[in-house]
Amino acid sequence: MKDSNELPVTSNESKNNKESEDLPLVTRHSLLILGIDTSCDDTSASVVADGEKILSNIVSSQSDIHKKYGGIVPELASRRHIEMIWPVVEEALAAAGLSLHDMQAIAVCHGPGLIGSLLVGCGFAKAAGYARNIPTIAVNHLEGHIFSTFLESKRPGFPFLSLIVSGGHTSLYMINGFGQYDELGRTRDDAAGEAYDKVSKLLGLGYPGGPVIDRLSGEGDPKAFDFPRAYIPESFDFSFSGLKTAVKLTIEKNPRFTGDQSSLRDIAASFQSAVVDVLVRKVEWAIIKKGIRRVVLSGGVSANSELRRRMREMADEREVELFLPSTELCTDNAAMIAAAGYYHFIAGDIAGLDLNPKAYLPLR
Amino acid sequence: MMPCLRRVELYMRVVTGSPEETENTGYRIGNLLKAYATRTVLLYGDLGAGKTTLIKGIALAFGIPKRDIGSASFVIVAEYDTIPRFYHIDLYRVETEEDMEALGIWEYMDSGGVAVIEWAERLSEMPEGAVTVRINYQDENSREIIIEGAIGDRL
User: Fold this and answer.
1) CATH number of the domain at A154-324, out of 3.30.990.10, 3.30.420.40, 3.40.470.10, 1.10.10.10?
2) According to CATH, where is 3.30.420.40 located in chain A?
């Protein structure tokens, strides 16, 4: 990956702002990238112009297409991705009013994620690119999350602090420029979103756990239970495994809690407060330690209302700029892959036909 | 079947008093796997038993830094480019036989790489020549770890 501090986005932005008044959304000068993400349960495809303008962003689980396939939301099976990839790509292109011929590049997520699922996206991108003579770009899923914020109207300048918090990841990065990522910390065991899912299952609240625990928390007492917070001194690393175990032990000792709505609300609120406390404190510490003035949140858990509220409070107090992507861009989507792919493309970083996905792929 | 000279019936019970000791026990298990060319570990233990901690130790014996091992619940199979290849498999989210097939769990076990499988009770049948590790919660820091299986070269 080439270093590139020179982002041509500024010139694009001003150009687009001027044009947006009376010209169509896509000009013939737009650089169009098809993004594909199959890293986990959802198949997603998107068309993004100039790395900043979303023309379409289709996620299979939210789309009507899957109804044609028996109403099954694609889950673990990679063969569901195989069934979904063409229809989802076609819908993304159709929604943008474009065809594959119009694309200058295909950006695909090559990890980290479920290997069988990643293989489908990478295989598709390479084959379609080869057949149509369109270059393929490999994008790390975490890089996609980091650059999802560039799809919003308010964009951060470099450097910024990026907290990626989802079902599969909890990582804190210093982003110095495109391709210049410095990992400050990551989870040593469970991701924050995973702790939500596992606790939700323990409480009998189902999957996914984030939205339901968030909702219950609003009516519960966050101080009812004193769950542990793993602050891990002198480190930006996270740990949520002990918190999950503490919730489990609490329920085991008091089995009646799971049948009692008010106890459930209190456990949910106390758990959520423990997660949010740690996330906010770590980011605050990084702000102080690194003297950074901009913070970006991304990943599915950044849709959590309490995390957003507390992070805003802290940012106001510390007088730093906070960037919270919209909910559709927080969760997994292909627009963010296309956005990050744009910067690879302009840096000349094109993948070969030997591109292979990786389940474990640290961002460097 | 031909007799094998290096076949060992293994039974060990360890009670650890801290996460560090649990990790060290994992490291010893990892070295046993290497010494006896055993490729599969079936790991049993409830949520919070310390499975990730134990696997950090096992993986360290194969040269994988502790930092690189986390929960694999989300990705289900985390693969590491070591020699032999190391697969950290977590079946927590895998509920149906169909998903098990689609994920190719059996192919990982037959690939010549080392496969450590969490929530092994989800497997519909047990692979041959695997080491079984059970990890039980005793109290906040203490864990009972039981290691058993017939290991060694199969001729």
Assistant:
1) 3.30.420.40
2) 11-149+330-346, 154-324
- Residues A122-155 have pLDDT tens digits of 999 999 999 999 999 999 999 999 999 999 999 9
CB contact under 8 A, A249 and B98: no
Q: What is the predicted ipTM?
A: 0.87
Distance from CA of B79 to the nearest CA of A (A): 6
The residue of chain A with its CA nearest to that of B67 is A188
Orientation of helix A305-318 relative to helix A209-217, angle to 10°: 70
Average pLDDT over residues A318-323: 98
CATH topology of domain A11-149+330-346: Nucleotidyltransferase; domain 5 (3.30.420)
Sort out which chain B residues have CB atoms less than 8 A from A191's CB and list them: 70-71, 74
Q: Which domains does chain B have, with CATH numbers?
A: 9-127+142-154 (3.40.50.300)
How close A292 comes to chain B (CA, Å)?
25
Give B102's contacts in chain A (Cβ within 8 Å). Answer: 76-79, 116
User: In this predicted structure, which of A67-81, A180-194, A238-252 has the lowest mean pLDDT?
Assistant: A67-81
pLDDT in tens, A180-222: 999 999 999 999 999 999 999 999 998 889 999 999 999 999 9
Give me the mean pLDDT over the A34-42 stretch: 91
Pick B99's closest partner by Cβ from A77, A186, A359.
A77
Interface of B with A in 84-103 (CB under 8 A): 93-94, 98-99, 102-103
Q: Give chain B's radius of gyration (CA, Å).
A: 15
For A186, name the nearest residue in chain B, comparing CA atoms only.
Answer: B67
Of A101-105, A144-148, A237-241, B5-9, give the lowest mean pLDDT range.
B5-9
Say yes or no for a CB contact (<8 Å) between A76 and B99.
yes
Q: Does B142 touch chain A (CB under 8 A)?
A: no
Query: Tokens at residue A89, please?
Result: 């790509």
pLDDT at A13: 43
